[in-house]
Amino acid sequence: MTEIDTYQQNTDVEQAPAVPAPPAEHELVRWAHAARQARGIAESLASTSFVPRSLQGNPGNIIGAILAGYEMGLQPMAALRSIDIIQGTPALRAHAMRGLVQSKGHQVQLVESGEVVCVMRGRRKGDEEWQEVVWTIERAQKLGLLAKDQWKKQPTAMLVARATGEICRLIASDVLHAMPYAREELENGAPQEAVPKVTVQELVPDAPAVADNDPWNAKNAVGVDQQVEEPEVDDEDQALFEEYAGGAA
Fold first, then answer.
1. What does the DSSP assignment read for the chain?
2. Is the pTM of this model over 0.70?
3. Main-chain dihedrals φ then ψ at residue 203, nearest 5 degrees
């Protein structure tokens, strides 16, 4: 048999049907699996000082903060230092909001800062025109904010935080996803919507039943009808203000 005959014989053999590729795992399924796997980590961190007081003792909210931060480009520990739960609503700290917006190439600048006025401007990546926002102590007074303790102690820092949230929403709302308000805004009466409670069983139907005393039980989650102690302005927030003030000088 010649080489040509052998080649012809081999090509006449019926080819086996191709095995179809397995269907791609749905992104939501992967997300739910990640939440389930991270439960142990959250329980380990829940009682530590590495999480803000609004998240301590609540592994479910810790996982929510980590996953939400991941979707916005924050590593887990950075997310825990950047997200608080204020009266049942997750919120970014002002410095984290500014950092996220700038990390996408958008510009945010402090133009003027003092105890009576804060002027900030920003523009999207590729835009030529600047957008500007102005927050004054008179504006805060009209909203009833000056009775708050933080406004009495640090009016300049609070004006910066308010202006930061407003300019970031104005130029880069797509970056902020589901957290359009800064923590400092929600602490002082910014509009907020109810956030539904989500259980492990809703995310992963085949997960083991959650005991009544388990922090992951929806009955133990922080809801919109529960009041949360307002975090104090910490050293990191003070450093943010000093950074802004130095840039404005």
1. --HHHHHHHHHHSPPPPPPPPPPPPPHHHHHHHHHHHTHHHHHHHTTSTTS-TTTTT-HHHHHHHHHHHHHTT--HHHHHTTEEEETTEEEE-HHHHHHHHHHTT-EEEEEEE-SSEEEEEEE-TT--SPEEEEEEHHHHHHTT-TTSHHHHH-HHHHHHHHHHHHHHHHHHHHHHTT--SBHHHHTTT----------HHHH-TTSPPPPTT-TTSGGGS--TTS--PPPP--HHHHHHHHHHHHHH-
2. no
3. -80, -45
pLDDT by 10s per residue, the chain, length 249: 555 555 555 555 455 555 565 555 677 777 777 777 778 778 888 888 888 888 888 888 888 888 888 888 888 888 888 888 877 778 888 999 999 999 999 999 999 999 999 999 999 999 999 999 999 999 999 999 999 898 999 999 999 999 999 999 999 988 987 577 777 777 665 544 444 444 545 545 555 565 665 554 545 544 434 443 444 444 445 544 444 444 443
34-41: Cβ within 8 A, 24+ apart: 34/67, 35/63, 35/67, 35/200, 35/203, 35/204, 36/200, 36/203, 36/204, 36/207, 38/63, 38/66, 38/67, 39/63, 39/200, 39/216, 41/76
Predicted confidence (pLDDT) per residue in 121-150, tens digit: 999 999 999 999 999 999 999 999 999 898
